[in-house]
Design brief:
The protein is of the alpha+beta class. Helices cover 41% and strands 18% of the residues. The chain folds into 2 domains: 123 residues, no CATH class; 102 residues, no CATH class. α5 crosses α6.
């Protein structure tokens, strides 16, 4: 995993006698405040992407929360390196014992859903188990956001993924968590997302595409179908509609996953050339080939039109 940004707390600085230096550096703009009494250097913050910044906010919340606090929902999802379709929240989420939810603090929302009996720790933050995390998220967020996280959580991490080295959750574990939590707000919505999720979906973009296919009433494709020609295996197609012989590929240059065959260390030109050769071989063994990207799958009407051009109709 990437090197974590260093966080500085007022309490630690006070014990070391450097709290005045920290305050002065903050006044000069050299540090940003992530929460009450927790800071990060401005230069380090500027180098972080959106995922890393939210994880830093969760770590900051953990530093000023009670010992052994369990962080949950999207906060746990971020620590588990799950993908976010849409922005991360601006607050951290924490579990409490069953009840009204406890008193939330500035930057921390508490949920009285009961503690996870099998919490995990990542980067020094105690979080809910992976299965519990995706179920909690599925109860409280949009269908597509939940599906993308569920798909990723149930897929064996690839060395090129942010989740490499972390465990994954089986479908049985996810449904066991859903059953354990019982009938509470959002559980019906969560069950629909869990039932739709598929570990074969190889990226957040593919998850979004599958949700759009469903919303349009299109037939569901087979996922990760391997194709062959006289030279042997061509590779795995992201989507295949067998009835009409149509292959769909999502963003073949930047995608990742256990069945991807791009080699590390290759330049962009070489990657593009190899992908073009792979696509030409794919086209030769099917009736149609459509390439999908973020812009197209985010435009439901445009996506329907493009797929209709290739013979895929409701």
């Amino acid at each position: 995993m990437a090197v974590l940004p260093q966080l500085f707390s007022h309490s630690e600085s006070s014990r070391l006698g450097s709290d005045r230096d920290l305050r002065r550096a903050f006044a000069r703009g050299e540090y940003l405040r992530l929460g009450s009494g927790v800071y990060v250097s401005t230069s380090e913050w500027s180098s972080l992407d959106a995922d890393e910044r939210y994880r830093a906010r969760v770590r900051a919340a953990a530093l000023r929360s009670r010992p052994k606090a369990q962080f949950s929902h999207e906060s746990a999802a971020a620590m588990w390196r799950l993908p976010s379709i849409g922005p991360w929240p601006t607050i951290a989420h924490e579990l409490t014992d069953r009840g009204p939810g406890g008193t939330s603090r500035v930057g921390i929302r508490r949920h009285g859903l009961g503690l996870d009996p099998e919490p995990q720790s990542i980067d020094g933050v105690t979080i809910t188990s992976l299965a519990r995390t995706v179920v909690d998220v599925a109860c409280t967020t949009s269908f597509v956001r939940a599906v993308a996280m569920l798909d990723c959580a149930q897929r064996t991490p690839d060395p090129r993924e942010p989740r490499w080295g972390l465990p994954w959750a089986t479908s049985a574990e996810v449904f066991a968590q859903l059953d354990t939590l019982g009938n509470y707000k959002g559980s019906a919505r969560a069950r629909r997302a869990c039932e739709f999720s598929d570990a074969l979906s190889g990226s957040p973009g593919e998850s979004l595409a599958r949700v759009q296919f469903r919303a349009l009433g299109l037939p569901a494709p087979e996922l990760q179908v391997e194709f062959f020609d006289e030279l042997g295996s061509i590779g795995f197609a992201d989507f295949f509609w067998r009835d009409i012989g149509l292959i769909g590929e999502f963003d073949g240059i930047s995608k990742y996953g256990a069945r991807r065959h791009f080699q590390t260390g290759l330049g962009l030109e070489e990657i593009i050339m190899r992908e073009k050769a792979r696509e030409d071989r794919m086209r030769a063994v099917c009736n149609g080939f459509v390439r999908l990207g973020w812009a197209l799958v985010s435009d439901r009407r445009g996506l329907a039109s493009e797929l209709a051009r290739h013979g895929l109709h409701v």
